[in-house]
Amino acid sequence: MHLQHHISLKPYNTFGIDVPASAFTTIDNENQLSEIPQNQKLYMLGGGSNILLTQPIEGLVLLNRLKGITTEKESEDHVWLRVQSGEVWHWFVMQAIEKGYGGVENLALIPGTAGASPIQNIGAYGVEAKETIDEVTAWHWGEKKFVTYTNSDCKFGYRDSIFKNQLKDQVFITSVTYKLNKVPKFNTSYGAITEELEKMHVQELSVKAIADAIIAIRSSKLPNPVVIGNAGSFFKNPTITKAHYEELLKTNSQIPSYPVNETHIKVPAGWLIEQCGWKGYKEGHTGVHAKQALVLVNYGNAKGSEVWQLSEKVVQSVKERFGIELEREVQVW
C-alpha cells in the first residue's frame, strides 16, 4: 500500500473543490483493505460526483479503483453481472446495452461509480438501482471480513440505503451484482422520454434507443462537470402529504406532482427552487445553474463552504414560501 500525504482532492471531486487530504491511497485490489490502518478516520471516495468538500480532510482517503465485470450466472430470462465497485457507472450501463441486457438503460449518463449505486439507490426517469441490484459485497471494517448483503438487507429507500445509515463508514463496498433482463421491459413512462424518442424518429424500442434518448435529455439539461464544477442534483425531490399539496394548489395551481401513495405526493425540488427565484443566480464563484435549478455549481474557485452557504439560503427560502424543507442529496465532508 502506497500512502501519500497532503494531497489535493481537486482532481477527485466533480465540484472541483480544492481541499487537501492528510493521507491518501488508491485501492485497486480487494486484498489491500485488510492492510488499512484503523487508527484514523477513513473516507471512501469513488467518482467524487456526489460530495461537497467543505474543509481539509483529516484522515485517510481511499480512492476506489476496483475494476472488472464478470457474469455470475444466467437463466433463460436473466443474467447476473458482478461489477467491481470502482467501475464507472455509465461505462457499465453501456456494456449492458451493448449486449442487449435491460434494466439500467434509464440510468444512463449518471456520474459516479457502480459502488455508489446501492449507497445512494441512484434513480432517474422512473427507474431506481434497487430494481436491478441482487446483492452487494463489502469489506466490513469492524468484523474484518467480506460480507454480502441481499437486496432486502440493503433497506433501500428514495436515494437511501443501509449504507447511508447503519453501515455508514462501517463498510467499503467492493462489488455489486445486478440482475438484468435478457428480454428487456421498457420503461418510457417519464414524459420527456417519449418526446425525445419521437424527436429521434425511433420506430422500434430498444435499450439503446432509450439510453440514447436519456443521454440527450440529460446532456441538454445538466452541466458537464468538466466544464462547470457540480455534483448533479444537489437536493432530493421532497415528499409531502396530500393535504399539504392540496393547500399549496390554492396559490400554486401549476405545481407539478407525482403520486407516491394514497397519502403522499412527491414534488420536484427544481421547480420549488425556481419559483423562489434562484435559477441562474450567481454569488461570487458559486451559483444555481441557469438551465436546472436543482444543480448548484462552482464557476471557478468556489470554496465548499460557499456552496454550502448558498444551499442554506435556498433551503430557507423554499421552507418560507412552501413550508417544505429540502434535503440535500450530496454527502458533505
Describe this structure in words.
The chain is α+β, with helices and mostly antiparallel strands. It is built from 7 helices and 20 strands. Strands 6-7-12-10-11 form a 5-stranded antiparallel sheet, with no helix packed on it. Strands 1-2-5-3 form a 4-stranded mixed sheet, with no helix packed on it. A 4-stranded antiparallel sheet has the order 13-19-18-17, covered by helices on one side. Helix 3 packs across helix 4.
Question: In short, what is this structure?
Answer:
The chain is built from seven helices and 20 strands.
Instruction: Give the tally of β-strands.
Output: 20
Give the terminus-to-terminus CA distance: 24 Å
Quaternary structure classification:
single chain
Q: Any idea what the radius of gyration is?
A: 20 Å
Beta-strand content: 25-35%
What low-confidence regions span 5 or more consecutive residues with pLDDT below 50?
none
**CATH-assigned fold name of the largest domain:** Uridine Diphospho-n-acetylenolpyruvylglucosamine Reductase, domain 3
Given helix and strand content, the structural type is alpha+beta
Q: In total, how many domains does the architecture comprise?
A: 3
Q: Encode the helix/strand succession as letters.
A: EEEEEEEHHEEEEEHHEEHEEHEEEHE
> What is the CATH domain class of the largest domain?
Alpha Beta
- Tell me the major beta sheet: 5 strands, antiparallel
What's the CATH architecture name of the largest domain?
A: 2-Layer Sandwich
